[in-house]
Structure formats: C-alpha cells, structure tokens
Design goal:
This protein is α/β, with parallel strands linked by helices. The protein is built from 14 helices and 14 strands. The strands form 3 sheets. Strands 1, 2, 3, 4, 7, 8, 9, 10, 13 and 14 form a 10-stranded mixed β-sheet that branches. A two-stranded antiparallel sheet has the order 5-6. A two-stranded antiparallel ribbon has the order 11-12.
Length: about 500
C-alpha cells in the first residue's frame, strides 16, 4: 500500500515540477525510468524515393530510414540508433554536398519536431496560428524544407524514438550529459564513415536541449574525432542553465525572462495603450530597464529603500500586465510558473510555456501553477499521429515498439560533469570557434518562448567571448512565435530564408 501511494505521488508531483524552467524544452510525458527492452543486435534499413517542390523547383531525393549499431572497438554492440536521412539525388558527388545532423532536446525528445516541423521535406499539417487541425493528422510536402541547400540526417538519442540500448548494456550510461554527447557524436562519426560524408561541409542543428548537445558536440567532434564543422544552428537555445534556474539566490532568470513576460502580455492585450503600439519598441524599453534599474534593485535585496522598491514594482507591473501589489508580494521576482497562471487569471485562462500565444483552461483559477501547457497540447497529438503514419506509409519502415516522441524514460538525467555549478556549454562553443576559425553559428529565438527566452540567449552570447571576431561569426534572428517558432507560418517562411542564407555563408 505504501509503495502504491509513493507511485501516485510521483506521477502527480513530477509533471508539476517540470513546469518550472528547471529543464529546458518540452516537459517529457510520464513513463518508466531508465528501463526498456533491449534492441536486437541487427541493422534494418529502408530506402525510398520521393520528390518535393522547394522554391518552385522539383527536387528528387532518397529517404534512408533505419538504425545503425554503435559498437565497442572489440565489436560488441552497445546501442541501436534510429535515424531518417534525406539525400538529394541530383547533387552530383554526395561526398562534397553539405550534410546537416539534426536532433531535438528534452532531454528525452526524439527528432520529430525539427524533422516534421521545419527542416524535412514533409511537414505536419497545422493551421496558420500553429493550432492543431482535427484528428486524424497527416503530413504534406514542405516547401520550406532546407533539403535544397543541404542533405539532412535526423538522429534519435538512446531511449527516444526507436533508439534503444542493445543486449545487456545498461541504459544509465547513455542518460546524462557526457554519455549522450559521446553516443550522438559516435553516431555522426559512423554515419559520415559509412555514407562517405567526411568530405562534405558539415552542420549541426539542435533545438532546446538539442542546442546544449550541439554546442558540446562542436568541441567534442573536433577534439575526439578530428571532425571540424562548418556551422552550428541553434533553435531556441539553452547553453547557460543559470539563465533559466529559478532558485533562491539566483536573480538572473527574473531579469532575463522579463522581456518575454512583456511580449506575452503584449500579445494578449494586457498592457497599457502606449506599450501596445509596437512590440519591438516596447521590448527595447523593457530590455533597457531589465539591465539597469531592475538589475540594480534585485542586487540590493533587503537594502533597497521602500520608496524605490515601490517605484520598481510599479514599472515591473506596467511591463508585465500584473498588479503592483502582486509584484510586491513576489519580492519583485516573478517565477515563470506563477506568471503563466497569473497573467489572465481574471479570464480564468493560462498561457503556454513553450509558446505563450496559446491559452488554456484549468480546473480552477485559484492555483499558482497551470494543470498543463496548452502550447504543448496543441502539437503533441498532431506530431505523434502524423509521424506514426508517415514512417510506415511513406518511408516503408516497420517497427512495433513504441516510438518515444517525448519520454520520461531518460530520468534521472545526469549532469555529473557540472557538479556544484550550472551547466554551461557556451564555453565548449567558444573553444570550438577558437580552434576552428571557420566555424559559424546561427541563433534563432522566439519572442513568445517562455522555455528558453530570447533575452537569456542574448545574455549568453553577449558573454561568449570578448573578441570582435566571435561576434562577427554569430548570426542572430528573432521570430514572432514561441519555442517551436515554425508552427507559425510567417516565422516558418522567415526561418527557411534565414537558414538558407546562413548555410550559403558557411560553405566554402
């Protein structure tokens, strides 16, 4: 009976904790912890041919779907890594055509979001606002794919998608910062070797925790395998975890989340008329306040005079759509889990974490935290259902085990390498850029992303290095959408143009 009670408490408590910005990206769905049936020690590959129209040109391509076995140097299989690769048929020598390795975040996410959201030749059918169409769900040709610029390889880390440990291998060795990075790096090395892509210009693209992985890999691939990259593309970045940890004594997130609180309030018409006129000019005003008066106020703590505290509270309230009294009750520090519940409480609505344009309705309007993230609810069903049909019907790949879209099987995730300090892979990226002067970086951020706010990303890159050369090699773009900005049609079109331009600039 006691064991049953503990299991029930765990099932309720963990999803609530995942609302906080303690782990970037979508909160994983519930599931067993670090336990799964081992994969068979065999490789299974399906190849199919297709066409897609991009930029008015019909492009023929081959889809390669299956798994590669990662082995020890003695030949013993360790892990089965599932992937989907798209290669353009008319590109001439594939060894010299750009190739991009893609993955998402979590930790615990498969690669489905970037795959069927923006990069691949097929995408999930959604409406212009990013909301789901009624089920059943389907895919359509993606005229915004970057397959015209680069071949694509979508990678599912161990225990996501169809990727699994093999034989008697212990899953825990893959479930942490270092084990995950080394495993994905070994897959990239093996794929480049098997498919003769060492001579290709090479790129990484990651989203959310996938940006943590990508920046760590940029250095690891160089130092471990001698594989130098042309570019790293970061979508909705989280490199320095201090920027997103709402913990006692860490005031940084309150400062860096403030502009996204403002953007959210602006979108839902919660600001005064003067601030509602133009989003970008309003954000510029808030950014200046956040880095000056607000930062100085938080630094003073209890030493802040009462009159000055009241003035700062009034300004924070003005920029967030909340009441001055509420801001004062929070000690001028608004936690994301409170903001998403408080902003539209009088309408009995909550706003999304991944994309704060979305709203939801909880059982009651009295709590501090929402029951669910309405922005994740809008994409979970469409992407899961569409991928399930697409793999079998179009790519002719069959597998009866569950495809883990976003799983909790990777818990607990180990950050042992960063014990007693915050995870920060910006230093890995800086080191890679130092050793590889040709390495370029693309950074894409959404204004309505409360999982990895754009201002936190700006802060990270403002502290990447202090030599002008580094700044010149980083391209930053912003989108009027959230974490998965590509669910917003105008942002999807802009992201396509931006990625094409970046790839062209990074290829010799």
């Amino acid at each position: 009976m006691r064991k049953l009670l503990l299991l029930v408490l765990f099932a309720v408590f963990v999803p609530l904790c995942q609302l906080s910005a303690q782990s970037p990206g979508p909160a994983p769905t519930a599931g067993p912890k670090a336990v799964d049936s081992p994969a068979p020690a065999e490789e299974k590959i399906s190849r199919t041919r297709h066409t897609v129209t991009i930029g008015g040109r019909r492009i023929a391509y081959t889809a390669t779907t299956g798994n590669l076995l990662l082995r020890t140097e003695q030949g013993a299989p360790r892990a089965s890594i599932f992937f989907v690769a798209y290669t353009r048929d008319d590109s001439g020598n594939p060894a010299t055509r750009p190739v991009t390795f893609s993955f998402n975040g979590g930790p615990g996410s498969s690669s489905v979001w970037l795959h069927l959201g923006v990069l691949g030749p097929r995408r999930v059918v959604m409406n212009d606002a990013g909301a789901a169409t009624p089920p059943p769900y389907r895919v359509m040709d993606n005229e915004f794919s970057i397959l015209d610029s680069t071949d694509l390889v979508f990678i599912d880390p161990v225990l996501t998608g169809y990727s699994r440990p093999v034989g008697e291998e212990n899953a825990k060795q893959f479930l942490g910062f270092k084990g995950d990075m080394e495993t994905v790096g070994e897959f990239i090395r093996l794929y480049a070797t098997r498919y003769e892509r060492w001579g290709s210009p090479k790129f990484l693209v990651g989203e959310s925790y996938g940006t943590t992985r990508a920046t760590a890999l940029s250095n690891h691939l160089q130092s471990r395998h001698g594989m130098y990259l042309n570019g790293v593309m970061l979508i909705s970045s989280i490199l320095n975890f201090q920027t997103a940890r709402f913990e006692v004594g860490n005031d940084l997130p309150y400062i860096l989340f403030l502009p996204t609180y403002t953007a959210t309030a602006w979108y839902h018409g919660q600001l005064e008329e003067e601030l509602q006129r133009d989003l970008r000019s309003t954000l510029a005003e808030v950014e200046q306040f956040a880095l000056s008066e607000y930062t100085l106020a938080l630094m003073r703590g209890n030493a802040l005079p009462a009159a000055q505290r009241r003035v700062v509270a009034q300004k924070v309230a003005r920029y967030t759509g909340l009441s001055t009294e509420y801001v004062e009750q929070t000690n001028l520090r608004i936690n994301i889990s409170r903001f998403v519940k408080e902003l539209m409480r009088d309408e009995r609505k909550t706003v999304g974490r991944l994309d704060s344009r979305f709203t939801g309705i909880d059982r009651d309007a009295a709590g501090e935290r929402y029951d669910y993230d309405p922005s994740y609810a809008a994409i979970q069903g469409p992407y899961t259902g569409a991928l399930g049909a697409y793999l079998r019907a179009d790519l002719k790949y069959e597998n009866d085990i569950p495809y883990e879209i976003l799983t909790d099987r990777v818990r607990p995730w180990s950050y042992a390498e960063f014990e007693n300090r915050y995870v920060n892979t910006a230093e890995d990226l800086r080191a890679a850029m130092t050793q590889n002067p040709s390495l370029k970086v693309f950074v894409g951020s959404g204004y309505y992303d409360l999982a990895t706010p754009y201002f936190a990303t700006d802060y990270t890159f403002d502290h990447l290095a202090f030599e002008p050369d580094y700044i010149a090699r980083v391209t930053t773009e912003y989108y009027e959408a959230g974490h998965m900005m590509y669910v917003h049609m105008p942002s999807l079109e802009k992201l396509k143009r931006d990625l094409d331009s970046f790839i062209a600039s990074a290829v010799p």
